[in-house]
TrEMBL record:
Gene3D superfamilies in the record: 3.30.70.20
Listed InterPro entries: ET_Ferredoxin (IPR052395)
Pfam families assigned to the protein according to its UniProt record, in alphabetical order: Fer4_13
Cofactor(s) of this protein: [4Fe-4S] cluster
Protein name per UniProt: Ferredoxin
Amino acid sequence: MMNGQNKFASNKDSKVRIKVINELCISAATCVIHAPNTFDLDEDGIAYVKEGTWDEAQQIITAAASCPTTAIIIEDLDGNQIYPEVN
Ligand code: SF4
């Protein structure tokens, strides 16, 4: 499993944690287009979370919102889910 796949990944410089649900990822890559410093696709075409400095949190949320299958879950550092929004 790559970083962030089916398990939350964090980054010392980011206010969010990110998880990609592998089973939902259909390799559309819109997450990579919106947040290229945060997401990439592995050799099977499944998104994972990159090492190094991520994009701004708002950009990461935009990337998650662009995913056609809602495969990306974003939470804050307290474990509260930010995206998809929970009411
Ligand atoms: S946008 Fe969603 S389906 Fe497309 S690569 Fe990213 S996580 Fe996978």
